[in-house]
């Protein structure tokens, strides 16, 4: 089984700020969508509620 971890962190070490991320990440969002397509995602409840279910992905919340 292959397990990968993907985390986006700002220059000052912030991962998120409530439901928002503290930077513009259009390119990173596209990369995330490409890497996670047809894959399992392990996310926290608040993250899942804020982003909703993306198509063609399986979730463990």
Could you describe the 3D structure shown?
The protein is of the alpha+beta class and 61 residues long. The chain has a domain at 37-61. It is 30% helix and 10% strand. It contains two helices and two strands, in the order H-E-H-E. The chain has helices at residues 26-36, 45-51, and strands at residues 40-42, 58-60. It has a two-stranded parallel sheet with strand order 1-2. Strand 1 (40-42), helix 2 (45-51) and strand 2 form a beta-alpha-beta unit.
Q: Features of this protein?
A:
two-stranded parallel ribbon; dihydrofolate reductase activity; NADP; globular; alpha+beta; dihydrofolate reductase; 10% strand; 30% helix; 61 residues
Mean pLDDT: 84
| Spatial gap, N to C terminus | 19 Å
Helical coverage, percent range: 25-40%
- Helix-strand pattern: HEHE
The proportion of strand residues reads 5-15%
Instruction: Supply the helix-strand structural class.
Output: alpha+beta
Organism: Shigella flexneri
Domain DHFR: 2-61
Keywords: NADP, Oxidoreductase
Family: Belongs to the dihydrofolate reductase family.
């Amino acid at each position: 089984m292959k397990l990968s971890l993907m985390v986006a962190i700002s220059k000052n070490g912030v991962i998120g700020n409530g439901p928002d991320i503290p930077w513009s990440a259009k390119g990173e969002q596209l990369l995330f969508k490409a890497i996670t397509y047809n894959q399992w995602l392990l996310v926290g409840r608040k993250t899942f509620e804020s982003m909703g279910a993306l198509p063609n992905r399986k979730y463990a919340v």
